[in-house]
Design a protein that fits this description.
One of its GO terms (molecular function) is ATP binding. InterPro entries: Ac_CoA_lig, ACAS_N, AMP-bd_C, AMP-bd_C_sf, AMP-binding_CS, AMP-dep_synth/lig_dom, ANL_N_sf. Residues 539-622 form the AMP-binding enzyme C-terminal domain. Its cofactor is Mg(2+). The chain has 2 domains: 22-511, 3-Layer(aba) Sandwich (Rossmann fold), CATH 3.40.50; 531-658, GMP Synthetase, Chain A, domain 3 (2-Layer Sandwich), CATH 3.30.300. The protein starts with 21 loop residues before the first helix and ends with a helix. It has 20 helices and 30 strands. It is globular, with a radius of gyration of 24 Å. It is 31% helix and 21% strand. The strands form 9 sheets. The chain has a 7-stranded mixed β-sheet with strand order 5-4-17-16-18-19-20, sandwiched between helices. A 5-stranded parallel β-sheet has the order 7-6-8-11-12, sandwiched between helices. It is α/β, with parallel strands linked by helices. Helix 3 crosses helix 10, helix 7 crosses helix 8 and helix 19 packs parallel to helix 20 (646-656). The longest helix has 19 residues, at 582-600. The structure holds adenosine-5'-triphosphate (ATP) and magnesium ion (MG). Adenosine-5'-triphosphate binds next to strand 25. The site of magnesium ion has 3 residues, from loops.
């Protein structure tokens, strides 16, 4: 990428600035900005101070060993993750609720730390009884139920690695991931509820396992009951409740070396074949513990809800390990945001959950916010959201319009918003406001956290001044960084460390402003090159969303003979602006082209605007721009196994090719 400022920053409305509300700042865990200097002065000590707040069975003798690109943290230290997430809290608050769960049909369960301790112990003993021991891999293919968390923690108690596969993935995806890590045991359920239907997890598991030679046992949780009609394979399949009933009540935690593997997690694959990201024990736990404490300002009475599925890294780090290491009460919800407790479509389930459970901290994804914008202001307005005190987002850049909508309609202009940039690979949040200190700017993840060091560089690796778009790099190791790709260290070196040796390359574009805030521009692969100018898709999308008719937009570059690439915009229109006929649709398309040209310059004028009801997204809700490029360029679609809904691309293709 060359150095460019084409397009300006119209989409970002740099004049918006939200200092922390004084009443929030007064009570915040972190109030003193000197934390950044302290971390910069000695970043190893900074992280070691957090690590020391955890329970270690044996102290480390060295904080960091850095042989680029391989890091080891807290060398010689021994600890157990389940002890830190559960046992540790029995001393101080055994009867506090650890998990507050709600099923889609409205059924509810709570587990205190004491109860969670019992369940984790029993299930660890149960897993051990079927042959799982330290270093083995266990695939977890489960719904959002407390047992998913119990299963993860039970693996860590034994020292087995888990590989959680999102419960919405297909048999092929499950098979590929199970084989890649060579799992011995698969944990699943008969099914779960999604928009009033049963998702038949056990059936899909059976299909996947026709081609998984390493799997010896399958443990099946009964979530649905009779209606799920499943078959159990004798000798291989065991009911969870039967296995636990005959297991001892206690399982002593395995002392794990700080660098022993904790889990492998396959990334969602927005950009291609999934990569098995490997995280280890001491550094990872320190990273998620510290960032949860800093970014979410956790207090003993908080009711904390991260809406991510445990199948994603956000679910690992901020549903399970980070909050439980902090002894927090975690809300979990099984189902869809647009399905009510009485089994009907709705647009306010999340707001209903917040009101009933008095959620204080909400951490969700831009895709949910954009869907809510499309549904309008009325659904959240029906609910009392006054318990909320802090909001967060993760997963994609959040358009400033969506940020402001969230701020107004959910946070009631009272709650700080933390826009957190990080990845499966980074394990923990990297760039984010500290809510008691940072002046936030809609659309910017603001600054690297204390102890994290980032830069924006050009193609050659030279640091770029403020206002210039370039490539994000992380310049120093951090505790929760991935250690390698499972079984493929060469790919690890090549993907993340070959572009700028010694510096980590996340694959995202970024720009800094004069105040040192980072503005994420989307994936480097998605940045367009039009007539020699770099154009950020993020910026064009944010401008489109500023138009009152637009709820969501995805911009891609289509190969063009003269310009190199031409921008093409796929746009979802807000319900009340839906054009009534072809002529109205054409008028709107023209209007949107002019709107972008006026705001960002003629060079950014989209060649095509396609009005669509939906965009291809990963199961975690991220727009898959590479498939939109395939459609626009008339190519065979690339890997679509991680798509949430394959019919969306099929329909778009028909539409694009004018057959509909
Ligand atoms: P794959 O790497 O397999 O294509 P993925 O990148 O979608 O999958 P994740 O690790 O879940 O899988 O996502 C990390 C990416 O999400 C980041 O690299 C970035 O592009 C995007 N992202 C996450 N949070 C933010 C944020 N707050 N602002 C901007 N982008 C974000
Ligand atoms: Mg990625």
């Amino acid at each position: 990428m060359t150095v460019e400022t084409i397009g300006g920053t119209a989409g970002w409305q740099l004049d918006y600035a939200f200092p922390p509300p004084p009443e929030f700042a007064r009570q915040a865990n972190i109030r003193d900005p000197e934390i950044y200097d302290r971390a910069a002065a000695d970043f190893e000590k900074f992280w070691a101070d957090f690590a020391a707040e955890l329970d270690w069975m044996q102290p480390w003798h060295r904080i960091l060993e850095w042989n680029p690109p391989h890091a080891k943290w807290f060398l010689g230290g021994k600890l157990n993750v389940s002890v830190n997430c559960v046992d540790r809290h029995l001393k101080t608050h055994p009867d506090k609720v650890a998990i507050l769960w709600e099923g889609e049909p409205g059924d509810m369960r709570t587990l205190t730390f004491r109860q969670l301790h019992k369940e984790v112990n029993q299930f660890a003993a149960a897993l051990h009884s079927i042959g799982v021991s330290k270093g083995d891999r266990v695939t977890i293919y489960m719904p959002m139920v407390p047992e998913a968390v119990i299963a993860m923690l039970a693996c860590t108690r034994i020292g087995a690695m888990h590989s959680v596969v999102f419960g919405g993935f297909s048999a092929d995806s499950l098979r590929e991931r199970t084989n890649d890590c060579g799992a011995k045991v698969v944990l699943t359920a008969d099914g779960y509820w999604r928009r009033g239907n049963i998702v038949p997890l056990k059936k899909t598991t059976d299909e996947a396992l026709t081609g998984c030679p390493t799997v010896e046992k399958v443990v099946v949780l009964r979530r649905i009951g009779e209606q799920a009609s499943i078959t159990m394979q004798p000798g291989r399949d065991i009911w969870w409740h039967e296995l636990v009933a005959s297991a001892p009540a206690e399982y002593p935690p395995e002392p794990m070396d700080s660098e022993d593997p904790l889990y492998v997690l396959y990334t969602s694959g927005s950009t291609g074949k999934p990569k098995g990201i490997l995280h280890t024990t001491g550094g990872y736990l320190t990273g998620v513990y510290a960032t949860t404490k800093m970014v979410f300002d956790l207090k003993p009475n908080d009711i904390y809800w991260c809406t991510a599925d445990v199948g994603w890294v956000t679910g690992h780090s901020y549903v399970v390990y980070g909050p439980l290491a902090n002894g927090a009460t975690v809300v979990m919800y099984e189902g869809s945001p647009d399905w009510s407790r009485d089994g009907k479509p709705c647009q306010d389930r999340f707001w209903d959950i917040i009101e009933r459970h008095k959620v204080t901290i909400l951490y969700t994804a831009p895709t949910l916010i954009r869907a809510s914008m499309k549904w309008g202001e009325e659904p959240p307005a029906r609910h009392d959201l006054s318990s909320l005190r802090l909001l967060g987002t993760v997963g994609e850049p959040i358009n400033p319009e969506a940020w402001l909508w969230y701020h107004k309609n959910i946070g009631h202009e009272r709650c700080p918003i933390v826009d957190t940039w990080w990845q499966t690979e980074t394990g923990a949040i990297m760039i984010s406001p500290l809510p008691g200190i940072t002046t936030t700017r809609p659309g910017s993840a603001t600054k690297p956290l204390p102890g994290i060091f980032a830069d924006v560089v050009d193609e050659q690796g030279n640091s770029l001044p403020p206002g210039q778009k370039g490539i994000l790099v992380i310049t120093k190791p951090w505790p929760s960084m991935l250690r390698t790709l499972w079984g493929d260290d060469e790919r690890y070196k090549q993907v993340y460390w070959s572009r700028y040796p010694g510096r980590y390359f996340p694959g995202d574009g970024a720009m800094r402003d004069a105040d040192g805030n980072f503005w994420l521009l989307g994936r480097v692969d998605d940045i367009l090159l039009v007539a020699g100018h770099n154009i950020s898709t993020m910026e064009m999308e944010s401008v489109l969303v500023e138009h009152p008719a637009v709820a969501e937009a995805a911009v891609i570059g289509k190969a063009h003979e003269i310009k190199g690439q031409a921008p093409v915009a796929f746009v979802i229109v807000r319900q009340q602006y839906a054009p009534q006929d072809a002529a109205a649709a054409e008028r709107l398309r023209q209007e949107l082209k002019e709107f972008v040209a006026k705001k960002l310059g003629a060079i950014c004028r989209p060649d095509d605007v396609i009005l669509t009801a939906d965009l291809p997204k990963t199961r975690s809700g991220k727009i898959m721009r590479r498939l939109l490029r395939d459609i626009a360029e008339g190519r065979v679609l690339g890997d679509t196994t991680t798509l949430a809904d394959p019919t969306v691309v099929a329909n778009l293709r028909k539409k694009y090719e004018g057959t509909e």
